[in-house]
Amino acid sequence: MDTYDVIVIGTGAGGGMTIKTLCEAGLKVCALNAGRELDPAKDFREHRMPYDMKFRGQDSPARQRQSVGYMDNEYVSSDVWEHDIAYSTAPGTRWTWPRCNGVGGKTNFWGRSAARMAEIDFKAASRDGFGVDWPVSYEEIAPYYTRVEQMIGVASTIQNRPSNPDGSYLPPINFRCMDYIIEAGAKKTGVPYLPDRMAQLTQAHNGHPACHFCGNCTEGCDVGAFFSSPYFFLPLARATGNLELRTNAIAREVLVDENGRAKGVAYVDRITRQEREVFAKTVVVAASCISTAQILLNSRSRHWPTGLGNSSGQLGRNLCDHLYGTSGYGYMPQLLGQPSFPDNVSSATIAWLPRWQNLDNPKQEKFIRGYSFYPGGGCDEFPSYYDDIEGYGASYKAEIKRRYPTPVSFTVQAPSQQSEKNFVDIDPDKKDIFGNPQVRIHFEWDDNTLRMWDHSKQVCEELFHNMGAVYQGHGDPESPGWSLHETGTCRMGNDPKHFVTNRFGQSHDVPNLYACDASVLLNCTDKTTTLSVLAFSLRTSEYIIQQLKSGTVTSKAPSAG
Amino acid sequence: MAGQGPSRRELLQALTLASAAAAFTGFGRWGYAFAENAAHHHDTPKSDPGPHTNYNPQFFTPSEYHSVDVLCALILPATTSLAHPEDGTKTYKTQPGAREAGVAEFIDFMVFSDPTLQETFRNGLQWMDSASAPASTFADLAAPQQDALLQRLAFAAKHRAEEKVGQEFFKLMRRYTVMGFYTTRIGLESLDYPGLTFYASSPGCTHHGNPEHVGI
To answer: 0.80 cut: is pTM over it?
Structure first.
């Protein structure tokens, strides 16, 4: 049986970064991925029109019934999204959990908003007294953010905001008519409106072509004009000759030796259902926040009866997520009857309203911390405002056309706070079809998050007024899980009694075990998670290299400072 | 941020189905050209409302199907507009409507594919027929009477308390007509849908000096 230097479970943002970094350092890596490799020419159909597909873009009805994620549709091959690995939710918990099991994971389809976190995020607990500080300073992580931005290409501008440190940017995506209208309204409201940090290539970058602005990025990109692990990392890893990628390999548990240290991984082959084992000096779990916790909780042995590296009892705890919801929607009468304009060339947002709350005084608002908004609207593929117009006939058809450029809405991104009520554990009664005990999710929104939601609705009404727009209402919060920004479960911290991993993402209990995904992040902020997953994974990878090359594997990490 | 652009996602949610269309034999007027092994998807999608062939409804009776087709054409009719509004020449162009886009076929396919819709559509069509007395069906009504009935169903100010079933059916019928129409090439062209075009750089606003876009 071959023995590798490192096994990496997962090939998404965190796993991909780790695989690339370790392979380039000359380490022999075995990567396990729960699904197959994707072929953009066959699996991504982002350039199809709705009428090219049997259900106008909908997935086949049989698949749709099984679907636990909203991502399923005819624009992407239907086996790309997980349907076979079941999970449980505790009574009262709603959880939407689209999992991409294809190689590269969710980076194939991500929303690409890529803002840095800031010192105000890492030291938030010291400012407002809630929760715990992160065991890193912004100064310490900033160089990793810069390197990641240079690797993947992020389009934005220098903005000089305390909660949004500036980085190394490609030219921004241009503002559309709607952006100028919102910007003018935001100015009157006293809130910022700025180019988002978008990991979308406004010019060719590191051998990757510039974006062609077709607008359907979240159905996959067939030329790789935004960062994804299969386009940006895995080819570099393969080129070293140090990578063995095993696909359709569903990790069951991390195996331990007689000393309770990691020695390998047991996995199930999705196709043959055979169980296999692979061995290495070091194991990195990067299966995404909840799946990483599931694998470790299922890795029970006489050394680790409650899960591998769980002496703190914190494994699976402190699950956080972003509340997403439409805080306000309506239309901009200024644009009634205007010619159609390609407003959705990035399929998500071009600009955003970064956090402006509680910046000078941490307790200025009725909630702690802060949230951000993403605007949406303009000429889109479907006139989803059709039900707002009464009538039928020629006048109805003309009004649909007249209103086409005008819709506008704001999606809030409000972080939940650390809570004892929100965690994952193993369902004692249920196993999935591969024989693995199912993970069970416990989650509810906390009061602080709901106060942010209420605040965001009020701000929206004012913003619509100041934009000269017609406010029509707001939506409800989406189901938890919808944002795909879950964090926690393997939080990093200096005290082994309270944290699963140290400040390098290394298990306090098991020194040759690491987590390289959003599970090590302490909580959600007003920013998205992927850029931080990449930066922390890069840092952890280089720490692993240092540990393996020095031959002194220890979890006594040098203290912060 | 996860997920798709809001409108594609909303459309997909709206189209959520409950049953497979195993016996589906294909469309006539509205053909789809989805090929699992298409050579390369940068190719121009080749699907268009083809010439009308005799479409056999999968769910509706011939009479029901006729009513659906009539309703589609009333909800989103073919229209004419000035071909060159900017230069004032009085030449007109015809903009096809839901009938030309084969929306009745789409609705039949969707209702056939989703048992949870079937009773509602059948009852609704029966309600329309009974409200059309003394004509035997809605389709048999003269145009002014069809219009008078639709006015009562479509506008809140003209609603009648005893016509709840008809109002709900009209809403459903209009919803499926809109979904069917604006997912065809004809429907998207009627909006001058600007997506799925390739640009060398991101297109930006050209109303320089007028950020609030007043009086553009």
So the answer is: yes
